[in-house]
Task: structure prediction
Amino acid sequence: MGRKFKKKLCQICKQKGLRKESVIYMKEHRLALCKEHFIEWFEKRVKETIKEFKMFSPSEKVLVAVSGGKDSQTLWYVLNKLGYNADGFFINLGIGDYSEESLQKVKELGKILGKEPYIVDLKEKVGAPLPVLKNFVLGTACSVCGRIKRYHFNKIARELGYRVVATGHNLDDESSSLLANLINWNLKYLARKYPVLPEEKGFPRKVKPLVKLTEEQIKTYADLVGVPYTNRSCPLGDTANLHFYKHLMEEIENHARGTKYRFYFEFLKKVFPIFNTLKEELVEGELQKCKICGEPSPSEICFVCRLKERLQKKETH
Ligand SMILES: [Zn+2]
Ligand SMILES: [Zn+2]
Result:
C-alpha cells in the first residue's frame, strides 16, 4: 500500500524506555497510548471530572440511565470499576428488535458487574410501547421519548432512594448541542447546560461524568475492556439535525484541534454563570404536584398522566 504507515509508540512506555505500540492517538492532547496506559488515562479522567464538578461522593448511590449503547454502558461499567456504588436503570421502550437487543446488552453488563439492572417496561407502566404512544402526542418521537424517560428516571430514583442520576453524555454530544442551541439562541436550554444540575423541586441531582471524553475515546475504552453494547441506533429517531451539528463540530475541530473541548469548557467557565443567574426567569416557572401521580409538573396533570388518559380514550393526534 504505497505509503508506509507506522503506528505511533505509547508515550508513557517510551519514557520508561519501553517500545509499545499505541492503541489510540489523541490529536487534541498530542498523546499516543498503549492499551494499559489508555485504560488508566480514561479512568483517571472520569474520576477527575466527578471530583472537579463535585458530582457525587463514593458513599452516594448513583442510578445510571442505561440505554444499551456504548456511552451509558461504559459509564455504568467505569463507575463500578472506580469503586462507586452505581446501579443501572433501563426503560424498555418496546421498539422491536432495537429494544430487545438493547435490553440484552444491559443484562449482559449487569452479569459482568454482578448487579441486577432495574427495568421498567413502558407497555406496563404507561399502557403502550413508544411506536404507539408517539401517535398520541404532538412532537417528534424523540421529544416524547425524552419526556417519558425523564419522568420515569425521576420517579424511580426517588422511589428507590437514589439522589443522583447519571447519564452517558460525552464531549461530542455536549459541544455539538451547545453549538446548535447557541445558533438558535435557545436560552432556556443554555441555562441548564452544565454537567451537574443540583437536586431541586423533587428532582434528583443530574450528572454527566463522561463530558471530558469523546465518542472515539469511549468506544476505544469499551472495546478494550469488553463492555457489551449495541451499535444500533433507534429506528424512530430523527437524528439528521444532531448529526449535522456533530459533523460541523468535527470540521471545526479538524481546522483547529482542541476547539471542541475549549468551546464547551470555556462556556462552562465564562458564560454559563451569567445564564445561571437568569435561570429562574428562563426555566419554566413554578412546579406543582400532579393531581393523579404526585410527580412534579408545570401543569395540574403531568405529561405522562395526560398521555395515559388519551390512550384510554384513544384520542390520537
Ligand atoms: Zn504504555
Ligand atoms: Zn402524573
Remarks:
- The mean pLDDT is 91.
